[in-house]
């Protein structure tokens, strides 16, 4: 077989093995290793590529940003800053139609600005927001759907681990990707809130199953203005320190991760939410998450090199030019592929598998790779809400095992939010300035 044929077969075998349930990093490493071995006809060369990918793939200083932001997110959760954000948003918004749902979106938006992990958002607000909504007569499916849907903001609003991964793969500035995520993140949060408000107005039964309980919201005790400020102050200070430091040029994204982790640790200690045992558990969990992400990056590095050696991306690019396909067609193909892969694998894996294939296809069109990165992240994040994988939905379900919530309830409740995300992708494609305004 020719190198291109080997490249095509390796991609097909890779997808088949992933659908068979084999762990993505092992599949990427194995198919890449065998592909290079067959293309070069030399076992030693394939072994050297494997060694270089493992030793050089994550040796860059910038990769230090991954464990630091993961650690910051874990410490933020331990400090209960997500709960504080929800308390403030809840008091300000709860009396509006669908107010508790809107408060959940608002709190998730704030929480997303201090943690870059969607799973953290889903776990935190499942414990905080869902019991609150159920207590006041909200529909169970709506409650879990709001939490699962709004949790995706954690991967779009900076700082975001997924934006960092894309920046590393596409060789773009992490700071530029963070700036680009602000507009789409706020737009998505606004559309989520607007959708909840309109649904509560015109289809109230979908939102509230017990109106009498919902009416009792007005009898809740209120916090004073000073108490609200005290609740939200640590969150505001952390966001200002991390994002303000990056955008103001005070420090690099990697240094910002260290600053954020240190401030989150101080907040957790001052609030007396962290024990020595708990801190050790957080360090261990940070290591697990970081190792899994970087293992995928190493495997994806091998995959990208194998594709380059095979010449497959160049060949596909030539075919696209011969077909005279527009970049919109290429984007539609990418979005469709991201949605399909989202049913079986996680977001980081989707980015690492698809981006190396599509970047050469977009090169002739002089498309902003920063803009494409936001489109890619949004399209990929939809997979967090779609069956059968839908990791955000699984997290919500597992966190609420005592509330009689089924996985089907979560998927059904999250479906409208997936539709809103598709609408947001369409708006970004039509109006790129939404992404590039702050860049």
The helix tally amounts to 22
Helix content: over 70%
N-to-C series of helices and strands: HHHHHHHHHHHHHHHHHHHHHH
Quick check: average pLDDT?
80
Low-confidence stretches: none
Strand content: under 5%
**SS elements, strand count:** 0
Spatial separation of the terminal alpha carbons: 45 Å
Estimate the global geometry from the Cα principal axes: globular
Short account of what is shown:
The chain is an all-alpha fold and 439 residues long.
Written account of the structure:
With 439 residues, the chain is mostly helical. The chain has one domain (3-436). It has 22 helices and no strands. It has helices at 3-19, 24-40, 43-56, 65-78, 81-93, 99-112, 118-135, 140-150, 161-170, 174-202, 204-207, 211-215, 225-247, 253-270, 276-310, 312-323, 327-341, 347-362, 369-382, 391-399, 407-430, 433-436. α6 runs parallel beside α8 (140-150) and α19 (369-382) packs antiparallel against α21. The longest helix is centred in the C-terminal third of the chain and has 35 residues, at 276-310. The termini are far apart. The chain crosses the membrane at residues 6-39, 60-79, 99-130, 142-169, 175-198, 228-247, 282-305, 325-345, 357-379, 410-438. Part of the tripartite ATP-independent periplasmic (TRAP) transport system. Residues 12-434 form the TRAP C4-dicarboxylate transport system permease DctM subunit domain. It is a multi-pass membrane protein.
């Amino acid at each position: 077989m020719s190198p291109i044929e080997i490249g095509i077969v390796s991609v097909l075998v890779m997808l088949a093995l992933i659908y068979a349930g084999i762990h993505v990093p092992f599949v990427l490493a194995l198919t890449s290793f065998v592909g290079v071995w067959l293309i070069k006809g030399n076992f030693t060369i394939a072994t050297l590529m494997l060694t270089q990918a493992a030793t050089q793939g994550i040796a860059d200083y910038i990769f230090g940003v991954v464990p630091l932001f993961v650690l910051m997110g874990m410490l933020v959760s331990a400090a209960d800053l997500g709960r504080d954000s929800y308390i403030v948003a809840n008091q300000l918004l709860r009396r509006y139609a669908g107010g508790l749902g809107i408060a959940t979106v608002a709190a998730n938006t704030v929480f997303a600005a201090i943690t870059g992990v969607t799973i953290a958002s889903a776990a935190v607000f499942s414990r905080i927001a869902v019991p609150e909504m159920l207590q006041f007569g909200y529909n169970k499916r709506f409650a879990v759907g709001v939490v699962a849907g709004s949790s995706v903001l954690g991967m779009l609003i900076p700082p975001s681990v997924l934006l960092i991964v894309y920046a590393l793969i596409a060789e773009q500035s992490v700071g530029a990707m963070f700036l680009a995520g602000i507009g789409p993140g706020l737009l998505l949060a606004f559309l989520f809130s607007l959708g909840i408000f309109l649904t509560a107005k015109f289809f109230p039964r979908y939102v509230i199953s017990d109106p009498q309980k919902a009416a009792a919201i007005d009898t809740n005790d209120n916090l004073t203005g000073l108490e609200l400020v005290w609740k939200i102050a640590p969150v505001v200070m952390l966001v200002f320190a991390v994002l303000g430091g990056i955008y103001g040029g005070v420090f690099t994204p990697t240094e910002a991760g260290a600053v954020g982790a240190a401030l989150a640790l101080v907040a957790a200690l001052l609030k007396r939410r962290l024990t020595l045992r708990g801190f050790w558990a957080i360090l261990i969990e940070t290591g697990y998450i970081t190792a899994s992400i970087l293992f995928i990056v190493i495997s994806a590095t091998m995959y990208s090199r194998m594709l380059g050696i095979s010449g497959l991306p160049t060949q596909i690019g030539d075919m696209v030019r011969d077909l005279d396909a527009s970049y919109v067609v290429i984007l539609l193909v990418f979005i469709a592929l991201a949605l399909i892969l989202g049913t079986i694998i996680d977001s980081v894996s989707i980015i690492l598998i698809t981006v190396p294939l599509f970047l050469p296809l977009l090169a002739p069109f002089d498309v902003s790779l920063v803009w494409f990165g936001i489109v890619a992240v949004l399209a990929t994040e939809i997979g967090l809400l779609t069956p059968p994988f839908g990791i955000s939905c699984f997290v919500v379900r597992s966190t609420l095992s005592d509330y009689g919530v089924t996985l089907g309830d979560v998927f059904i409740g999250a479906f409208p939010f997936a539709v809103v995300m598709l609408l947001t992708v369409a708006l970004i494609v039509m109006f790129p300035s939404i992404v590039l305004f702050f860049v």
